Amino acid sequence: MSVEGKIIPGEATLLESSSAQAGMNRRHVLMGGALLAVSGLAFARAPKARYPNIDAKHFEALFPQTFGDWRTLPVSELVMPPESDLANKMYQHILTRTYVNDAGVGVMFLAAYNSVQLNNVQLHRPEFCYYASGFSIDLSEPYDIALAPDRVITARAVRASQDTRIENIIYWTRIGEDMPQSWAGQRVAMTKANLEGYLADGMLLRVSVINPDFKESMDQLSGFVRDMIAHTKTPTHKLMTGFA
After folding, report:
1. Per-residue pLDDT tens for 89-117?
2. Higher model confidence: residue 20 or residue 49?
């Protein structure tokens, strides 16, 4: 207390402490409000899932078992992604088949899909799967499949070998609306989708043939892809390439 306008010793300290405490409380309130506002903005701007889950039956039905002069065989020699908890999270669906045509050409087919691509859970590119399975990667380069003058699948051609088995592969990934031809491009496509406000889905299409002749293999595989697209409808086209 003060007497005749004088402050009793110790009261100044109490007043200063109360004033400082009030200032700190105001700062805490302001800081808390600012943090809540930032959190709310971050939540509002967080990328949202755009692509619905596809049930297994529907996913399998999108890819015909027979088309043109191609039919499926009951056995497959496909190289599969490594088994692990992370690999299991990467794909909601993995469909594998072996097709053969009237000329006896056998094409191994893999379609893997996840409706959401995250930084730590995204499609494995086949070079990794083959290398992990004991193959050497002898070649990996960009390879385009022209469907029409304005529609091109931007894929990769890979040559993998193990002992006497020489397997030539064409594969591509579709991340949202893009078909990146490299791992770095895949990350860029995911970031682009996030900046646009959505989480991209991820589709991996892989076709391969056991054949030592690289050029002939590319012709066979490109022809297979064109035939499949020619004999399927818009939902399959959209899933495979993003094209309607």
Report:
1. 567 888 999 999 999 999 999 999 887 65
2. 49
What DSSP string runs through the chain? Answer: -EETTEEPTTHHHHHHHHHHHHHHHHHHHHHHHHHHHHHHHHHHHS-EE-S----HHHHHHTS-SEETTEEEES------PPPSHHHHHH-SEEEEEEEEETT--EEEEEEEEES--BTTB-PPPHHHHHHHTT-EEEEEEEEEEEEETTEEEEEEEEEEEETTEEEEEEEEEEETTB--SSHHHHHHHHHHHHHTTEE--EEEEEEEEE-S-HHHHHHHHHHHHHHHHHTS-HHHHHHHHS--
Close Cβ partners of 225 (under 8 Å, ≥ 6 residues apart)? 145, 153, 170, 205, 207
Please tell me the pTM assigned to this model: 0.75
Our CA dihedral for 143, 62, 193, 150, rounded to 10 degrees, sits at 50
Among 8-12, 53-57, 116-120, 155-159, whose mean pLDDT is lowest? 8-12
Task: Give dist(CA 110, CA 94) in Å, integer.
Answer: 7
